[in-house]
Design a protein that fits this description.
Layout lengths: L1 E6 L2 H19 L6 E6 L6 H11 L6 E2 L7 H19 L3 E5 L3 H12 L4 E4 L11 H12 L2 E4 L2 H9 L6 E3 L3 H16 L2 H4 L7 E4 L4 H4 L2 H14 L4 E5 L2 H9 L8 E4 L4 H9 L3 E4 L2 H9 L4 E3 L7 H5 L3 E3 L4 H13 L15 H11 L3
Parallel strand pairs: 1-2, 1-4, 2-3, 4-5, 5-6, 6-7, 8-9, 8-11, 9-10, 11-12, 12-13
Length: 365
């Protein structure tokens, strides 16, 4: 089977790395007959958000790069649709594989379904129940177009069952757990971000902030910056800044305190180790929420809801919105009452890639 893998954004590169490696390993011993063709839409296109991930994670080079770049949702999605249609007609794949919830996911699912190519969706069934998030629209559409929905958790399976998609759903576990286990070991051997950034394990807070609902809203981003500045008086705050976040901080004339250590976007290996050794993580990223949980690091999520409800239910994640007071209170509460490592493994056992490959190979239209 020819499998067209469609990626375009940082989280997708990470997820695809584990699946592509498994395809390569199984092909080498004659256990899988999958020819993978990778298409990079170019949604994330600069070196810090794209090239470093292919290089660090050993992802095979993309056969096609659409280089769509930035733009409004409509402009970006339209450019991807046009480019992906041409690639699909040229390659004639047996299946298209999409990941997550970005515009690349939406475009890949739409283009393939219009050409009657079966779609498999990794990380299917996640719901924030907030349709103001463009990601929510993307994943709902992708799930309903997919012939094979590969689900990371029982919660995601239940969500799809309520939407009448139980027949397309397969529980695989979370591919990000595979990645965290595999690449954290590699990172410990190859990387030393603590020394590089003059940090000490367990003595800093790690913060990320990139969602438009936060960065493009002056009141919300001001609250987040204020909380980070106040927290930095007690604890070093490490803040890798997404390009859009940097632009909006400048646009709103917001300044970070000297105790907030700003960094450019980091590669995956550096980021994993900074997460693993942090005292606490503040984020609006879905992936970082999960990685904090995988490493048993308390997480404060600067959103009003989360798809990853298990992290909240098990006490490792606190939702605070963009309220500066709630952010600081949550840090104090988690410091006074640190969560305990749960016995439950809601995202599987780290073998999601194997289960994804089995589902792909076993699929019959």
């Amino acid at each position: 089977m020819k499998l067209l893998t469609i990626v375009g954004a940082r989280p997708q590169f990470i997820k695809a790395a584990a699946v592509s490696a498994k395809i390569s390993d199984l092909g080498a011993v004659g256990r899988a007959s999958i020819e993978e063709v990778i298409v990079h839409t170019g949604q994330h296109y600069d070196a810090g958000m794209s090239e470093i991930f292919f290089r660090e994670l050993g992802i095979p080079s993309a056969r096609h790069n659409l280089a769509v770049g930035s733009g409004s949702h409509a402009v970006q999605t339209a450019a991807m649709l046009e480019g992906l249609e041409k690639v699909m007609v040229e390659e004639s794949p047996g299946m298209a594989l999409v990941y997550g919830d970005t515009n690349s996911t939406l475009s890949g699912a739409l283009a393939a379904s219009k050409l009657h190519i079966p779609v498999a969706h990794v990380e299917a069934g996640m719901r924030s129940f907030n349709r103001n998030m463009p990601e929510e629209i993307n994943r709902i559409v992708a799930d309903h177009l997919a012939s094979l929905n590969l689900c990371p958790s029982l919660t995601s399976m239940d969500n799809l069952a309520r939407e009448g998609l139980e027949g397309t759903s397969v529980l695989t576990g979370d591919i990000m757990y595979d990645c965290a286990l595999k690449f954290a070991k590699l990172a410990e051997k190859l990387q030393d971000p603590l020394s590089k950034f003059s940090l000490h394990s367990g003595r800093y807070a790690l913060m990320t902030c990139h969602r438009a609902e936060n960065t493009d809203n002056c009141m919300r981003i001001s609250q987040i910056v204020s909380a980070a500045n106040e927290l930095s008086q007690k604890l070093d705050v490490v803040f890798p800044i997404h390009p859009r976040t940097g632009k909006m901080l400048e646009s709103f004339s917001l300044s970070l305190a000297p105790g907030v250590k700003t960094l450019p976007p980091l590669g995956y290996l550096d980021m994993l180790l900074l997460e693993k050794h942090a005292a606490v993580i503040l984020t609006d990223s879905g992936g970082v929420q999960k990685e904090a949980f995988f490493f048993s690091v308390p997480c404060i999520t600067m959103r009003d809801e989360t798809e990853w409800v298990e992290t909240v239910q098990l006490g490792f994640n606190v939702l605070v919105g963009a309220d500066g007071g709630k952010i600081l209170s949550a840090v104090e509460d988690l410091n006074a009452n640190p969560p305990h490592l749960p016995d439950e493994k809601p995202y599987g056992n780290g073998d999601a890639a194997d289960k994804i490959i089995s589902a792909l190979c076993g699929f019959r239209p």
